[in-house]
TrEMBL record:
Residues 61-143 are annotated as: Disordered. It comes from Geobacter pickeringii. This is Cohesin domain-containing protein.
């Protein structure tokens, strides 16, 4: 992979305030993101020299607007080799499970991890901007 572009379309009535964090799964990756259009997040990345492998490219965090885990309408990704030729790759999203607590959050922060209010929140390394589990854009099986 020499460069890529991922476009994620989501329902802004269920998800708000998208934030993209570099995941660090691919060393020396130069990455930029655009969240200025409501309902669309664009992530672009490049690496010189090109490489072969797999890893997490970005973590995409949202604020939920209700008890739903949110709606991601589509995700399109294009990955190019060092000659600019599109390559085959699997691009996927990992979404947190639906909220069971009725608070609009994955586990009530007052009781999460202490045996009540819904499932415990997963632990995150590094600084966590939101109490919501991230959606992750993954690249697998780059050839």
């Amino acid at each position: 992979m020499a460069r890529m572009e991922i476009v994620i379309r989501y329902d802004p009535s269920t998800l708000a305030h998208p934030r993209v964090d570099r995941a660090g799964g691919i060393p020396r990756l130069v990455q930029s993101s655009d969240t200025s259009d409501s309902g669309v997040v664009t992530i672009k990345a490049s690496r010189n020299p090109a490489f072969t492998g797999s890893g997490t490219v970005a973590s995409l965090h949202f604020d939920r607007t209700g008890p739903s885990p949110g709606t991601v309408d589509s995700m399109d990704g294009v990955i190019y080799n060092d000659q600019g030729v599109p390559m085959s790759a699997q691009v996927s999203i990992t979404n947190p499970p639906p909220d069971q607590s009725g608070t609009g959050r994955e586990g009530d922060p007052a009781t999460a991890g202490r045996g009540g209010g819904g499932p415990p929140r997963p632990r995150f390394r590094g600084r966590q901007r939101s109490r919501q589990p991230p959606m992750k854009a993954l690249l697998r099986g780059l050839k």
